[in-house]
Amino acid sequence: MDEMTSTMAQTAAAPDPDDEAERAGIEIRDLYKIFGPDAKRHIAAVKAGMSKDDLNRKHRHVLGLQNINLTMPGGKITVIMGLSGSGKSTLIRHINGLIEPTVGEVLYDGADVCRMSPAELRRFRRLKTAMVFQRFALLPHRTVLENVRYGLDIQGIAHAKSEPMAKHWIERVGLKGFARHYPAQLSGGMQQRVGLARALANDADILLMDEAFSALDPLIRMDMQAILLELQEELHKTIVFITHDLDEALRLGDKIAILRDGALEQVGTGQDIVLGPANDYVASFVRDVNRGRVIRAATIARARKPGEVLPEMTVQGYLVLEKVARRMTNAGATSAHVVGRSGKTLGVIDLPELLGAIVTPVTADSDS
Amino acid sequence: MATTCWGLPEVICTFPAIDTTTMREMRRTIDTGFRGLVREWSDVIDATTAPLQSFLNMLERSFVGAPWVVVLAVLLVVVWAASRNWKTVLGAALAMLAIGWVGLWADTMVTLAMVTVCTIFAVALGLPVGIVTARSDRVQSVVNPVLDVMQTLPSFVYLIPVVVIFGIGKVPGMIAVVIYAVPPMIRLTNLGIRLVDPEVTEAADAFGSSRTQKLVNVQLPLALPTIMTGVNQTIMMSLAMVVVASMVGVGGLGRNVLQAINNQFFTIGFLNGFALVAIAIIFDRTSQAFGKRLQKHREAGHG
Ligand SMILES: Nc1ncnc2c1ncn2[C@@H]1O[C@H](COP(=O)(O)OP(=O)(O)OP(=O)(O)O)[C@@H](O)[C@H]1O
Ligand SMILES: [Mg+2]
Fold it and tell me: How far is CA B172 from CA B42, B47, B119, B159, B185, in A?
């Protein structure tokens, strides 16, 4: 409870960017997961390079994850992306110990989640993690309020205390007035808001979201993404978000990890991945992406020519090209002056190059 | 016989059964051994069944002894509380009045008392067993075949050991009824818990629920519709079985039916039969309406 009030106080004040660094990150090391009765025996073969298909055909074991090394920075959104069956759900379930690895470690705040006793694990789940599910997983016999209160009930917090907290989060996700409704009386989007409120009410540092928005239709989905980003702006939780939608990944992810057949293909920022796909698999993912929403002004700003007068218009370097283009056309400018966070000049953008970067690859290696 | 034997050797033609003297010997040893065992333990058996016996007697006395208006009022209140449906209450009232009018009130009370006790026992026994069965596949693989045997074995067959061990009376009757009525309770509790949406139980785990918290907050409430079907089935099977149990000394409507069969009392047989059907319908409607009422929250629609 003390923890709760202190974070609330922090968030009420202006968010301090240095605050983000205080959140512990999640560190996954040398993680392998094989499904099957005799998993340990096949580890050596998998480490030596046996493929998922071979393992399944020869030994009837399913390779869930292999050689995962991933740091999920505290206070940021890490998106895990991949096709169906690539092991996304398996990976996220290792973080709160719903699945035990065959070998490997999941470190959080100095502790290995995989080595926790059942009691420690329960405590960890109650206080440190919260989860949002693809098909909402609400309790149908409980009202919205009772659902949102669920994690707090499990912790043994008295209703007198938990009810105001639950109500606070119900309002924050925009469901004011629906506290006494049952889940069956709500639309899908509203149900997932309840799922989100339930997770947030726990006030856990880690928020695990397994395809949380995949079951929602596109407009509601954008809504939910906006709500999540808005809340994250002030809460700075360590969020692990799973999706198979690249646009969603690029919109939400501070860091994106791409999985395929249980192995990491590439890890980086959205821009890293769009501009420099590590292999054909990733390239095929990003081929149709809207570059204007991913590439940032700073990336394509050219150096100022000697003696050139800086254009009148300034744009922030972290803005995506789409926004820069809109501002420049609105202002009627043909070139703009790109500045960094501290106001330092980063370079100049000209409108033709800007449009070129939006429609064609900018770097040589993705040109082919 | 040998003529129809198509010229085959005797062993293949007539089944080589144990000869009758060996069979007789075997039967005698087993039967006397069993009886001896029962006699030896009779004190223990009596001691354990005595409280049950007095409980049954007490309940029966209170059902039969109380003025009929009081019993009827209590019954109707229970029906109303469970179903919240005036039609069901009215139907129950008419049925009970008709039963009383044809002079079967006392016998009906005896049967009602018996069915009540048996249902309570069967539910109290079946629910925990069902929960344990749902938690472990190994337990399920043992319990299921046992339930299969309990349900397929003709009830007359297991009445025999029950009578040998407990004699004639209400207690053996009750044991027979409970054995017959408990399998659906166990099966449907097990099934109901296993059918709970795995994503919801996973959510319970993810929020750090203990096993008990998960059971109470998630599994039992979500399995409730199925469990209520189990309770309903258990009641119906208890009612069916009290007729058979009248052969080991259970009174009430069942005994009248038995006597009617033995003496070809056509009218009495039918009246008692209809009384049983009437109670069955009352129980069925009430318990089903109760089950449905527990599911109100599943109805969609804003409001
Ligand atoms: N309990 C299990 N037993 C055996 N194999 C499993 C089990 N759970 C997952 N798998 C296998 O592991 C692989 C990864 O599954 P996972 O559910 O993590 O995929 P996913 O990326 O979440 O897919 P989706 O997008 O469909 O949710 C799949 O091949 C799946 O069949
Ligand atoms: Mg999945």
Answer: 14, 14, 15, 8, 20
Residue B215 falls inside a structural domain: yes
pTM assigned to the model: 0.84
Using a CB-CB distance cutoff of 8 angstroms, which residues of chain B are in contact with residue A123? 208
Task: Look at residue B277 and tell me if it is in a domain.
Answer: yes
Determine the distance in angstroms separating the CA of B214 from the nearest CA of chain A, rounded to an integer.
9
Across the interface, whether the CB atoms of B297 and A182 are under 8 A apart is answered: yes
Q: How far is the CA of B122 from the centre of ligand 2 (A)?
A: 41
Is ligand 1 within 6 A of the CB of residue A84?
A: yes
Residue B178 CA to ligand 2 center (angstroms) comes to: 45
**Cβ atoms of residues A222 and A293 within 8 Å:** no
Q: Quick check: CB of A63 below 6 Å from ligand 1?
A: no
Burial class (CB in 10 A: 0-12, 13-18, 19+), A278: middle
Residues 6+ apart with CB under 8 A from B53: B169, B170, B171
Rounded CA-CA distance B15/B34 in Å is 29
**B289 within domain boundaries:** yes
Check CB contact under 8 Å for B222 and A129.
Answer: no
pLDDT at res. B10: 80
What's the mean pLDDT in B249-268? 91
- Spans of all domains in chain A: 2-22+74-98+116-286, 291-366
Amino acid in the structure at residue A22: E
Note the ipTM here.
Answer: 0.81
Calculate how far, in angstroms, residue B23's C-alpha sits from the geometric centre of ligand 2: 64
pLDDT of B123 over the 70 cut: yes
The answer to whether A146 and A170 are in contact (CB under 8 A) is no
- In this prediction, residue B4 carries a pLDDT of 67
Check which CATH number belongs to the domain holding B162 and give it.
1.10.3720.10
Which CATH architecture group holds A291-366? Alpha-Beta Complex (3.90)
Protein residue with its CA nearest to atom 11 in ligand 1:
A64
**Mean pLDDT of the B198-220 span:** 95
C-beta atoms of A153 and B217 within 8 A: yes
Instruction: State whether the beta carbon of A172 lies less than 6 angstroms from ligand 1.
Output: no
Which of A117, A141, A240 to mutate: most B Cβ within 10 Å? A141
User: What CATH superfamily classification does A2-22+74-98+116-286 receive?
Assistant: P-loop containing nucleotide triphosphate hydrolases (3.40.50.300)
Q: Is B269 on the interface with A (CB under 8 A)?
A: no
Confidence band for B302, pLDDT divided at 50, 70 and 90: very low
Residue-wise over B156-187: b if at least 16 C-beta within 10 A, else e? Answer: eebbeebbebbbeebbbbbbbbbbbbbbbbbb
Q: Which of B33-42, B110-119, B189-198 has the highest mean pLDDT?
A: B189-198
